[in-house]
């Protein structure tokens, strides 16, 4: 578990820059790479803060209490990326599947836990690494976690297919209405 880079004026003076993720890039179960900023970085920063496939990123601070603790998994092994200090990176071991962890965090119990543990100062709700470490994730075998993840993937694919079909039907209806009127 690790916080990311602190964004400060001193980083502008470094010769090398690297893309990094901010809170705005991390949604619930997705990472938006459309607006990625760059930050001054050193070789040590690359060794310490570079994201690896399967890293779980958790939002540490947000003005909206309902967005605190949201998480997503880094799935881009071919992209060099760092993360800022308002994101907590969790690197799972052999007994915890990242997708299982992220699904739990983003589910009702994980959300409720982080909302209940958040502290608020100056309108910003925050959690810290201790709060993340103390999250009680149900301990099930790695095989059961993988089965859960597989079923979750099927459900999400079915949901995406249904959304696509709705879009197709709406376009068809619009086309028919334009022909009639």
Describe this structure in words.
The chain is an alpha+beta fold. It folds into two domains: 2-137, Adenine-n6-DNA-methyltransferase TaqI, Chain A, domain 2 (Alpha-Beta Complex), CATH 3.90.220; 140-181. The protein is 39% helix and 18% strand. It has five helices and ten strands; from the N terminus they run βββαβββββααββαα. It has a four-stranded antiparallel beta sheet with strand order 1-8-4-6, with helices on one face. The chain has a three-stranded mixed beta sheet with strand order 3-2-7, with helices on one face. The protein has a three-stranded antiparallel beta sheet with strand order 5-10-9, with no helix packed on it. The radius of gyration is 19 Å and the shape is globular. The model has no long low-confidence stretch (mean pLDDT 93).
CATH class of the largest domain: Alpha Beta
| Helix and strand element order | EEEHEEEEEHHEEHH
Tell me how many strands there are.
Answer: 10
For the record, the CATH architecture of the largest domain stands as: Alpha-Beta Complex
Write out the CATH superfamily name of the largest domain: DNA methylase specificity domains
The major pleated sheet works out as: 4 strands, antiparallel
Question: What overall form do the CA principal axes indicate?
Answer: globular
């Amino acid at each position: 578990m690790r916080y990311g880079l602190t964004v400060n004026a001193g980083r502008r003076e470094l010769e090398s820059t690297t893309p990094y993720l901010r809170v705005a890039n991390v949604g619930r179960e997705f990472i938006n790479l459309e607006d990625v900023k760059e930050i001054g970085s050193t070789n040590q920063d690359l060794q310490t803060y570079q994201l690896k496939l399967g890293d779980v990123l958790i939002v540490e601070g947000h003005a909206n209490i309902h967005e605190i603790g949201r998480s997503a998994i880094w799935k881009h092994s071919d992209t060099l990326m760092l993360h800022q200090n308002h994101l907590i990176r969790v690197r799972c071991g052999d007994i915890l599947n990242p997708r299982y962890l992220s699904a739990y965090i983003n589910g009702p119990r994980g959300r409720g836990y982080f909302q209940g543990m958040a502290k608020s100062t100056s309108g910003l709700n925050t959690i810290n690494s201790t709060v993340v470490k103390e999250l009680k994730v149900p301990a099930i075998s790695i095989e059961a976690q993988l089965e859960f993840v597989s079923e979750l993937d099927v459900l999400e694919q079915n949901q995406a297919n249904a959304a696509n079909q709705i879009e197709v039907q709406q376009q068809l209806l619009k086309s028919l209405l334009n022909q009639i009127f």
